[in-house]
Structure prediction request, 133 residues.
Amino acid sequence: KVMKARIGIMSEQLIRVRAIAIAQGKYKPAKDEPKIWYTSLNGISQILNPDNVALLRLIERERPDSVSALAELSGRNKSNLSNTLKGLSDKGFVRLEKGPGRSLKPVALFTDFEIGITQEIEDLLAELQLHAA
Prediction:
């Protein structure tokens, strides 16, 4: 099955307004609205570069039970790979589960990505921001 992440691009200010409005119950995100937000395409391209997307798909396909096993499968250095996985985990693209012993098992949460810039959401939030002032 395809695990697609919906990613939105919006100004940092509106991302903040959205988070506060959700917390206050003034805004309910639509079911198909992005769950992951960035302030620029540049920010997305740094984390979702071709190597990292290939890594996510490798994790999904091979289901390695540790970072060491993934290092072997991918031919990548383990410490470099650990840093990459931490970045992908921080952004919500990978989950690192406790594996056997002290090992961490990487689990890909998404393998496909849809990036949107939604004027509709921005307009709604700008309206909320006006009323909050």
User: Anything to note?
Assistant: The first helix runs from residue 12 to 23.
